[in-house]
Design goal:
With 177 residues, the protein is α/β, with parallel strands linked by helices. The chain is built from 5 helices and 9 strands. The longest helix is centred in the first third of the chain and has 18 residues, at 45-62. The chain starts with 13 loop residues before the first strand and ends with a strand.
């Protein structure tokens, strides 16, 4: 499970994005009620299965003061489909409504203790971890019944405890160097 635990403060980062800009956690979270850090990649079938739902939730909550960011930490040498150029392609093709950043050194993924793609870390306005795990209860959209991320976002925005603070992340392992 994650190195950072429920209630811990988010670990800062400054990473290059597919839009050519370097983005930091403080840039993303400034003035936001919540920030969702999502470790993801281009080739993982689990990410691809969840991607439209992640895009939809990011769009649904953007006007409610929630920031979203995708971070790809996979080794692009062993997995060329996860290269920066392919990240740009994925972002353009899918119209990602959030920054998609490259953790080439893998330092941020390691610091967070991220193990899978997708893996969500949801922080409140004070950047305290409030939820960690899978987006919902099934990567197969037709079988999904509980939106862990959506429920956690609703709780954070309402100033309440999250109904579930942690679930096992489901997906491909991060491809370490």
């Amino acid at each position: 499970m994650a190195k950072i635990k429920n209630g811990d403060t988010a670990i800062g980062f400054e990473l290059p994005g597919v839009d050519g800009k370097t983005i930091s956690l403080s840039d993303l979270s400034q003035g936001k009620k919540a920030t969702a850090v999502m470790f993801m990649c281009n080739h993982c079938p689990y990410v691809l299965a969840w991607l439209e739902r992640l895009i939809a939730i990011a769009q649904d909550y953007a006007d409610r003061g929630v920031a979203f960011v995708g971070i790809n930490a996979n080794d692009a040498t062993k997995y060329p489909a996860d290269s920066f150029d392919k990240m740009v392609e994925l972002s353009d093709q899918r119209g990602l409504p959030f920054p998609y950043l490259h953790d080439e050194s893998q330092e941020i993924a390691a610091a967070y203790g991220a193990e899978r793609t997708p893996e969500i870390f949801l922080f409140d306005a004070d950047l305290k971890l409030r939820y960690h795990g899978a987006p919902d209860d099934n990567y197969d959209e037709t079988l999904a019944t509980v939106s862990y991320l959506g429920n956690a976002l609703d709780a954070v925005l309402a100033g309440k405890e999250t109904p579930v603070a942690e679930t096992p992340p489901v997906g491909c392992t991060i491809k370490w160097k």
